[in-house]
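Moderator note: this is an archived Q&A kept for reference. The question asked for a predicted structure of one protein chain; the sequence and the answer are reproduced below.
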Amino acid sequence: MSIGLEHYLVLSAVLFAIGLFGALTKRNALVVLMCVEIMLNAVNIAMVGFSRFITPTELTGQIFAIFIIVVAAAEAAVGLAIVISIFRNRDTVDTTDVDLMKG
């Protein structure tokens, strides 16, 4: 039995669902950022799977995956900087306790 496109898409859907569930239910801002990274990696798996099985001679899926990895790295750096700044000012990274509109 060989691994087909369906296997990649199921793995991608499961990872995306786990990441979405974690991003919507967790309170810790660092865990939410990690869940967003899981969702971006799920999209990468789908892109590379589609590229491998639909257009095997072109590298469009791999190129898009590289762009997504670059965006994810920038998002992680900016998100971590924001979380550190909030932690220094509020002494918490709990997303329910952080309200930037209050002094």
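Archived answer notes: The helical segments are 5-25, 29-54, 60-90.
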